[in-house]
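Hi there,

I know you've been waiting on this one. I reran it after we fixed the sequence typo, so this is the corrected version. Both the input and the resulting structure follow.
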Amino acid sequence: MTNELIINKPDDMHLHLREGELLGFVLKDTAKQFARAIVMPNLKLPVTTVNLARNYYDAIKSFGYDFQPLMTLYLTSELSKEEIKRAKESEIIHGIKLYPAGVTTNSKDGITSIDSCFNLFEEMQKYNLPLLIHGEVSDSKVDIFDREKIFIEKYLIKICQHFPSLRVVFEHISTKEAVDFVLESSVNVAATITPQHAMLNRNDLLSGGIKPHNYCLPVLKREKHQKAILQSAISGNPKFFLGTDSAPHLTSQKESACGCAGVYSAKTAIEIYADIFDQNDALDMLPNFCNKFGADFYSLPYNQTKIRLERKDYEIPRQLEFNGDKITPFLAGQTIHWQIAEMPH
């Protein structure tokens, strides 16, 4: 039995760092485990320009952590071809994020007509700038459990057919249909996998009472979908890599009449992934999943810093204190079996 893993410090290829005082709080947890992260642009004032991305980058770096933020732009109808060119030349921007309007937190400024963005996709393909997609339709007439599947059928197939050289990341996949789509697509299409979608299904959200801290978007699906995502994560296929989609909300906002969507996994993310892979006899697949496949897709050098994980039971805190309030971490109060430990001298 393996009791220790020493691996290159992982990358989180889908992360919400928020802003203001919350930024510093969550950055501390992330920087302990991850060398780099693709940082989402859906702030209250969306990161829609290179200048705004630079300001956000500087705010993140101002905390002094040994951590490299990989910035993204928020795709809106106002995005110009010139801004895409500036993004490619900026060296800090690594993708452009598409949110269908209203589909998740701070997405009101998102896209209402994906077909109208084709000229922008063409420009992104020209400059080899990845398109990162929250792949759900926001049509209220579509069942929430079908929104990812319908997005594939209505939009994603067409995007990939029209722009075969465009690199596309299908974020936080939650269905077997998404797994199958990625597997059947070209090498330019990849997907990120969250710990919650690999571990949980909709029973973990709804059975025996609503579990608001397991509520995220895309919403958890049937067990067959969870199993398909788990298998893709541990398969060793380079199309699938780590992206936590860690998204903090105050406990009071999660446990409210209209609970916010988002799971805060950054506190113990790599330990949770280690647990998932270990329980499925796939620990040897973890290093590539967490620090090679994503780097390859984004054309980044591999991290050289190491972290050490040891087999040791750890109870995840039930609450994290923040600014007179609380944040409830993913799997709060549960025991996991791996922990980050000091490197040997």
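Quick highlight: The first strand starts at residue 4 and ends at 8.

Best,
R. S.
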